[in-house]
Amino acid sequence: MTYDEHTKVQPVTTGDSLPEVRPEITSTSQVMSGAEILLRSLEAEGVKIIFGHPGGAVIKVYDEMHRINPEFQHILVRHEQGGTHAAEGYAKATGKVGTVLVTSGPGATNTVTGIADAYMDSVPIVVFTGQVPTGLIGNDAFQECDAVGITRSITKHSYLVRDIEDLARTVKEAYHIARTGRPGPVLVDLPKDVLLAEGPFQYPETVNMRGYAVPEAVRPEKLQRAARMIAESKRPLLYVGGGAVNSDASDSLTELARYTGIPVTTTLHGLGAFPEEDPLALRMLGMHGTWWANQAVQHCDLIIAVGARFDDRVTGKLDSWAPHAKVIHIEIDQSCISKNVFADCAILGDVKTVLERLIPLVDPKDTTEWLEQIDTWRQECPLQYQKDGKLRAQSVIEQLRDKTGGDAVVITDVGQHQMWSAQYFRFLHPRTHITSGGLGTMGFGMPAAMGAAFGMREIGSSRPVVCISGDGGFVMNAQEMSVAAAHKLPLKLAVINNRFLGMVRQWQELFHMERYSHTDLSDTNPDFVKLAEAHHCVGLRANTPEEAKEIIDEAWKVTDRPVLMEFSVAKEEMVFPMVPAGAATGDMITDRMTPNSFV
Amino acid sequence: MADTLILTPQQIIRKKAAGEPIQPDDSEMIQSHTIVVQVENSIGAFIRVINMFSARDFNIDSVTVGVTEDPSVSRMNIVTTGNGRIIAQVLRQLSRLVDTIEVIDLTDTDYVERELCLLKVCYNRDSRSEILSVNEIFRGKVVDITSKTMTFELRGPSKKIDAFIDMMASHKIVEVARSGRVAMQRDS
């Protein structure tokens, strides 16, 4: 490789290393390695951070990274799955595309869970995987796997780059696809010979894909029809999902709800899209939603679904869900429309754009009677837990809320603590609740929180990043703690330790005659305080409500590294209310006394 | 792909609640559909389409693929079965793939369809003339003959080929090769 014509020698700054050469980017295309084209493309795409792990197939990329020192930060994660979740956390906290770089074979397969998670939850990430040289593909070469094939049904799109000439265009398309429409993961597989080859670099300014179009024009007659349906309804309900957050539609949604007086219930991913302290907020609906939100669903005469997909955890038994309601469905992904629930009026388009255009067409409604009815349900069965002086998960979450005033980015793992966080934290702002909903990936929380913290640092936000995990899920990706420590991220890691796989235990107690098959973790859990300390973090433990308050106060004083707070809670606690899987939404278990009728 | 094609359980409940009569709706009827999908001409695009069917548990009765008048575009003819709701989902999921350029359900349109079939059957002195007369009725061609077997070539709509195979079934069929359906809309 020669750099004679367009390089300059950088001054040597460290030890006895060789002088570094750094080609300048000029407007005219210049010849460089595939690996450098990749890095330059990422720079051109405005990437600020990538999460990666090196290996043989991508060693050239890491070599070029060392040489040219690109304008983005590379975070060396300790497991590729952690990398993908970190990219998801970053993407969800900032609204930007997360980037992952891993090697071939096991590097690629380790990203699979994160990619599937991003696919289910519509998170924009681009995953670059190394691949064996094109000549060896199919030969069962060392660290070879069919990454594109393995991930085909869990990516929005994927590429195998066979020619260096296609590389820059592919990167451009990958980011475009990940970011636009309903966001999702894109995988780009990079054979080693393509990374080693040399070619001209010019980053394309536009994409041209005849098969990919984002719905833009909203059909006015559909808006008119929706406005008419809203005007005619007596008991309307806004049902808001993650699409409203992805489309940054919170303000428009809040305006619509307050202007018309329509109450709002949110899905797990919709939390934060509408301030939960607003009198119109009914909190979360569905399996572990509030009694009053689910009652509102069962009695409403109009559901306005906003960026939501009628997931089975929301609807339960489909044929008895919202039996009196007509449905308006505002959605960017055509495949979500009438997939589970028939839409009387489907409006295909960007949620924010649709809401902005709908607001001028609607009038304030008198929903007093309807809201009073909902308030009755609210009094009937409030969210509550036993306050008997023992430390309980719900009180830990309330204490964390009080400590932050509700203004924190909360990342949760998967299980009971996830539902309690959704029920008790009260989310006020979009992008402040990040969780694994669709795939339900245990081990998501810690690395995603790390990614979110990098995102907060990048956008200069002082919002604290709080990760709430269970003891089961936390250990699944605990290794990333040392990465967070190395980068001095002031993460607050709350581990709600009930020494059980609590949600499975809950189902075993309710539906499997208390046969606690392989859910007791008391013999295999690590010492979480020592685990934190071994990863250069601070570890704290609380067994009582008083100690909980103390360690939370103490944790907030630490600003130069992550703090793990272990809260030792009772194993018997269950998440209520609950709609058993497959049951009708009207049939909620509201406490421990009622479950047997649903077994 | 109109919304009105679909009748969900929820909609049926609503109709019942409103006291509306519930007709055995077209959308609830299982029906065979012929779908033409124009995709990027690459093996990846083809597999992505097929993979979508398998990942989402949709049915494929037959599939053919070949390059079109534009060498960068492949045309897939897919025959699938389902009720209105499932077919609407199939069409939406197909359209959503990045590599699909155009998706058309030909079923309720005016279109021509053809399939090619090769059929090898055993014969003897007794059955020979009957086999040949069946072939004549279906206007097939004898493309190979040995002392024990005859091989026929038959072209036509899939139903005609079904009927031909049915008629031959009373003899000893050795092998059947069917091409899968190709279809094209008539010009109006």
Lay out the secondary structure:
The complex is a heterodimer of chains A (599) and B (188).
Chain A: E1 7-9, E2 21-23, E3 30-33, H1 34-44, E4 49-52, H2 59-68, E5 73-76, H3 80-94, E6 98-102, H4 106-110, H5 112-120, E7 125-131, H6 147-150, E8 157-160, H7 167-179, E9 185-191, H8 192-196, E10 198-201, H9 220-232, E11 236-240, H10 242-246, H11 250-260, E12 264-266, E13 281-284, H12 291-299, E14 302-306, H13 312-315, E15 326-331, E16 345-348, H14 351-358, H15 368-380, H16 393-404, E17 409-412, H17 416-424, E18 433-434, H18 445-458, E19 465-470, H19 471-474, H20 481-486, E20 492-497, H21 502-511, H22 528-534, E21 538-542, H23 545-557, E22 563-568
Parallel strand pairs in A: 4-5, 4-6, 6-7, 7-9, 8-9, 11-12, 11-14, 12-13, 14-15, 15-16, 17-18, 17-19, 19-20, 20-22, 21-22
Antiparallel strand pairs in A: 1-2, 3-10
Helix pairs in contact in A: 1-2, 1-7, 3-5, 3-18, 11-14, 12-15, 16-17, 16-23
Chain B: H1 9-17, E1 31-40, H2 43-55, E2 62-67, E3 73-82, H3 84-96, E4 100-105, E5 111-122, H4 128-138, E6 141-145, E7 149-156, H5 158-168, E8 173-178, E9 182-185
Antiparallel strand pairs in B: 1-3, 1-4, 2-3, 5-7, 5-8, 5-9, 6-7
Helix pairs in contact in B: 4-5
Can you describe what's shown?
The complex is a heterodimer of chains A (about 600) and B (about 190). Chain A folds into three domains: about 25-200, 3-Layer(aba) Sandwich (Rossmann fold), CATH 3.40.50; about 220-380, TPP-binding domain (Rossmann fold, 3-Layer(aba) Sandwich); about 395-575, 3-Layer(aba) Sandwich (Rossmann fold). The termini of chain A are far apart. Chain A contains 23 helices and 22 strands. In chain A, helix 1 packs across helix 2, helix 1 (about 35-45) runs parallel beside helix 7 and helix 16 (about 395-405) runs parallel beside helix 23. Chain B is of the alpha+beta class. Chain B folds into two domains: about 5-105, ACT domain (Alpha-Beta Plaits), CATH 3.30.70; about 110-185, Alpha-Beta Plaits (2-Layer Sandwich). Helices cover about 30% and strands about 35% of the residues of chain B. Chain B is built from five helices and nine strands. In chain B, strands 5, 6, 7, 8 and 9 form a five-stranded antiparallel sheet that branches. In chain B, strands 2-3-1-4 form a four-stranded antiparallel sheet, covered by helices on one side. In chain B, strand 2 and strand 3 form a beta hairpin. Chain B is globular and about 65 Å long. The two termini of chain B are about 20 Å apart. Chains A and B meet through strand 8 of A and helix 1, helix 2 and helix 3 of B.
